[in-house]
Amino acid sequence: xxxxxADLAGIGRTIGAAYAAAAPSTMSVAAAAxxxxxxxxxKLFGAFGQEQQALSAQAEAFHAQFVQALNGAAGxxxxxEAANASPLDQALxxxxxxxxxxxxxxxxxxxxxxxxxGANGGDGGILWGNGGNGAAGxAGTGQNGGNGGSAGxxxxGGNGGAGxSxxxxxxNGGNGGAGGxxxxxxxxxxGNGGNGGAGGSSAVPGQLGGAGGNGGAGGASESLLGGAGGSGGAGGxxxxxxTGATGxxxxxxxxxAGGAGGAGGAGGSAVGFLSAGGHGGQGGAGGNGGAGGTGGxxxxxxxxGTGGAGGAGGxxxLGGAGGAGGSAGIFGTPGGSGNAGTTGTSGAGGAGGNGAAGxxxxxxGGNGGAGGSGxxGGQGGAGGAAAGNxxGGNGGNGGAALSQTGTGGDGGAGGDGAGTGNGGNGGNGGAAxxxxxxGGKxxxxxxxGNGGNGGAGxGVTMTGTGAVAPGTGGNGGSSxGGVGGAGGAGGAxxxxxxxxxxxxVGGTGGNGGSGxxGGAGGAGGxxxxxxxxxxxxGHGGDGGTATIxLGGAGGAGGSxxxxxxTSSAVVTGGGGGNGGQGxAGGAGGAGGxxxxxxxGATVxGHGGDGGTGTGxIGGVGGAGGSxxxxSxxxxxxxxGGDGGTGGSGVSGGAGGAGGxxxxxxxxxxxxGHGGAGGTGGSGVGGAGGTGGxxxxxNASSSxxxTGGDGGIxxxGxSGGAGGAGGxxxxxxxxxxxxGAGGAGGAGTTGVGGAGGNGGxxxxxSSSSSxxxTGGDGGKxxxGxSGGAGGAGGAxQxxxxxxxxxGHGGAGGTGSSGVGGTGGNGGxxxxxSSSSSxTGTGGDxxxGGNGGSGGAGGTGGAxQxxxxxxxxxGHGGAGGTGSNGVGGAGGNGGxxxxxSxxxxTGTGGDGGKxxxxxSGGAGGTGGAxITNGTGVTxxGHGGAGGNGxxxxGGVGGAGGxxxxxxxxxxxxGTGGDGGAGGNGxSGGAGGAGGxxLTNGFGNVGxGHGGAGGTGTVGVxxLGGAGGDVTIQxxxxxxxGTGGAAGAGGAGxSGGAGGTGGQAVTNGFGNVxxxxGGDGGAxxSGVGGAGGAGGxxxxSSTFSAATATGGDGGDGGTGTPGGGGGAGGTxxxxxxGAKHNGHPGNPG
Length: 1146
Fold this sequence. Notes:
single chain; 1146 residues; little secondary structure; Helix Hairpins; 12-stranded parallel sheet; 4 helices
């Protein structure tokens, strides 16, 4: 029996040595990389190794027990025969003696606590008993602590002994002993595995130190009733030596670096039916903090067994990394969150632990731990991935950097959701003075949940003169059936030192995540700086792509506040992010606004483009950033940001407005241009964005000022409208150029887009003598029906320079419908009474051609307080109608002279009517009203258009004249009427303009227009002559009525028009206008001559002569037309009166 037991003992030692040799490489498998998958695989195989070692230990124990049983058979027999004082004690002693003799441990009873330093505790009874505690290592030697003894079926495992501290220089502290395993049952309550012993500290103050000991592993729980695995032991405190793992500073008194704190022990895994994993051990203190232990894994449980939380990293030069959260049991509570990394007092902060993954019954992932702060911040832990329909855990925030040169920790990524769950949000980056942490990415959602939001990039605050790098916002997580996560905002920048001249850029916003609906892009980081370097706001992130809904909006560009008044650095607002593509496109982000006290060139941020709409409307373009330029001494150029382009779609998105500029400087200034409208497929094209306006507040500025142009409208089934040009307001004396209106987009099957209005001008400086012109209106877009042209920009001035209103845009061509209406000309208002400059209204745009022609626009009116000559704008011509009526001509612009100026005033001419199957009417000439003493002339009426199949167009009436001052001796004449258009029947001529005067100058009515020729029908009627009225009783001015227009020739001739009347209250002669001759007939009756005009003198003291107008002659024909009657002459005075002569018959 002795020989057999010796052989078995030798075999056991051989097997034990083999397992011991395999233990280091199997129980702690290093990760192949730093990603989560590699870490999880390493952890899994490490757990397999630990379980294998536990099973081997049990096999070894059984083997030893069997050997002992053979050796102790005789002793067991003798012990069974021994009597005891108590029958029960004798029975127990008999049983224990035999079992101990056979197995080396009693059946019932606690294991003995170890008393020798570093010795292991005794095992408890096989059936019932607690394991003995391991002894601590001998003080000062760095000896390892003893392991705790294992418990029986019922009982608690013994605690591991503490590792001994080391007092000798360079000697490491001892490792804590492992806790003993607990029993399967715990006396009705679950037994816990023993706690691992604490690691020993190393060295003493002033000496070279070694590393602190590692905490012992917590004992495994094998309980069937829910016992917890033992907590891992705390790592030992490191000595004052070279850098090791992590921990707090070593004891003071040496210039050497502190030794490494020991790593916290891993929490014990739960193996039993109702068990909970233990907590990871606390990392040891030392020069650098030890890493926190990983939380224990929960097992199959129905009684709230939980995965253990990761242990916190120890304090030290480098903060300890937080332990990862433990995995949940099958029926336990959710897995733990990763603990935060701790602060490093002189080194980097520890990384936050990763959150635990969810399980099917507890599907939510754990949150990542925050990174610790330190000289550089620790990275935030990643959120745990979800299971089932759970939500992913949120990523931990990055730790702050406490030193001026340190880097803030990046935020941890959010965990992926599962099923219908949401992805976790990314952690925010850690703040820093120079280089901040980036935001973590949001977790993805594979089902109907929403993607996690990206974490915000951290900002920087720089008091020195170094370079800075704010954090970038994290990208939003994607989603298959929900909303993509929003991108995180870019980090802001604050520069407080005026001597800092390095370039500065705000943090970039994160992109929105893709999804059924796209996530919004993050805003770009703001910059506030007192420095002297080139400065740019952060760029906004792009919106996420949407598969079935609205694309994500682009993030706004970062704004800039530039506070250094002596710097000439360039300053630019951040660009807006582009909108995401979707069924409907996302809006582009607005460009960043700039407010500056500096002296450098400045540009507002450009707006982002709108996203494409695959089945709906395209996204709106982002507005350009505005600029406020506060320096009164700078001559730097300043520009507003351009608006973003509208996205294409079934209907196009509108373009963004250009940025406005307000400046106190003296440099050239331009408003931002409006973005173009997006193309519309089967719908309407997008409207163009409005051009940015400009306001010059510095009266000493002589710089050129330019408004932004309006964006062009997008093409589509119907075209989009063009954007209005930017307006200009100035207190300076420089050249002024308002923005032009954008052209309307083309319509493939519908109406073309309207052109944008031209920008207006307001000159407030009386010292300005520059010539000024309003912005031109945009052309209307072509289409089945043409779009209307935009109006010309108006001008208002206190200056003395020549002034002209903007021209109206032409109407677009209509391929089958009506041509577009021409835009009106811009008006003019001259407010300075000392101005002798000319003022001219803007000419109107012509109507577009089409099936029916479009009407011409109205010419711009002029109002003046000055002494310069003024002219109204001309009306636009009507468009040609290919198979319908020609467009009507536009009216001429009127003139109002409010001063007692001797300047001339002339109304604008009316536009010609367009040709067509029937001719369009001519426009009316512009009227003139004056308080001055200068010559005045009404505008001429436009001629009627020719009709190829019908009546010619009616000629437009001439513009009238009103002279309000009794001091005027200038001549005033009404405008002539336009001729009627030719056609199958001729169009009537327009009436001449009348004159009403309170002055002393001679006045004459405008002549009537001739009637148009009728090719197969009647010739057109002649237009009546304009009437004249002299209201001043003391006036000796001659008044003459306007001659009438002749009738048009035709198959039958048209009648001549009636001569204009002449009426006076004064002493001057008056003459009625002559009647128009009748038109000749080719086959019918000749046209009748028109009657002569009345002449009447109402003054009883007048010796002047009144003469009636002669009648017009009749037209030739079969028979000829009768002559017109002579005009009657009357007087209440003493002068002669003569009736007009009748006209001759035809």
